[in-house]
Design a protein that fits this description.
Radius of gyration: 23 Å
Strand content: 15-25%
Helix content: 25-40%
Number of helices: 9
Number of strands: 9
Order of helices and strands: HEHEHEEHEHHEEEHEHH
Distance between the termini: 37 Å
Structural class: alpha/beta
Length: 225
């Protein structure tokens, strides 16, 4: 089910430059778009970059920018600075795929400003009158729990992929957790113990820690260093 959702996301992002990934926490939304973006970059050979923004953690001015009414000087916000950097193409941004991910509630208070950007003309008009045209290699991704606060004007402009709690089975979650335990220490204390054991082993002329030395640390898998 999860892999099918990832494939749906791929199909939707080819058709729409604005995509909403909707579903509860733990349903695999973040892992899906990250895995898909990496897979697209690997298969196409085109580098991909993602920019994750929590729109509820900053003010609207910090997100889009602010105009000083005294000096009439415009200061870009977080989103507009990212978009402008892509448009300016100073570091080869035009040769990459860019996903700008808004990880938070789709609140009309901040998202309404993006409606013109989500239209077919893909234009963001700043209070100064400047118009920023979004390139074709950019996608706007909304990662949200639900659409409780979203307006029809925004929803109708985006493609949708719904993740449910059944997208990830309990077995998949357990396997993922166990695989992480095999490759990384469970906590900092285990890391310190492992590093001390490894240092002692190397002093004794061994390249790795003996299994018997780490029997009390089940979260570590022995690896050749």
């Amino acid at each position: 089910a999860w892999s099918a959702k990832a494939f749906q996301l791929y199909q939707i992002q080819t058709l729409a430059h604005g995509v909403m990934i909707v579903g509860p926490s733990g349903s695999g939304k973040t892992t899906a778009w990250k895995t898909l973006l990496d897979a697209m970059a690997e298969s196409s050979g085109v580098p991909a970059e993602s920019y994750v923004i929590n729109p509820k953690a900053i003010s609207k001015d910090d997100l889009y920018g602010v105009l000083d009414h005294t000096t009439r000087e415009w200061t870009d916000g977080l989103f507009t600075s990212i978009l402008r950097a892509i448009i300016d193409n100073l570091r080869g941004e035009s040769q990459k795929v860019h996903w700008i991910v808004f990880d938070g509630d789709v609140d009309p208070e901040w998202v309404e400003n993006l409606n013109s950007l989500l239209d077919d003309n893909k234009i963001l008009t700043l209070p100064t009158g400047e118009r920023l045209a979004m390139p074709n290699n950019v996608r706007i991704i909304f990662e949200v729990k639900d659409l409780k606060y979203a307006t029809p004007a925004t929803v109708s402009r985006c493609g949708m992929v719904f993740f449910s709690e059944s997208s990830n089975s309990l077995e998949m979650i357990h396997c993922n957790y166990l695989s992480e335990m095999e490759t990384v220490p469970v906590d900092e204390q285990e890391r310190e113990v492992y590093e001390r054991k490894l240092a002692s082993a190397r002093e004794a002329g061994r390249e790795a820690v003996e299994p018997a030395d780490l029997e009390h640390l089940p979260g570590l898998r022995l690896q050749q260093q």
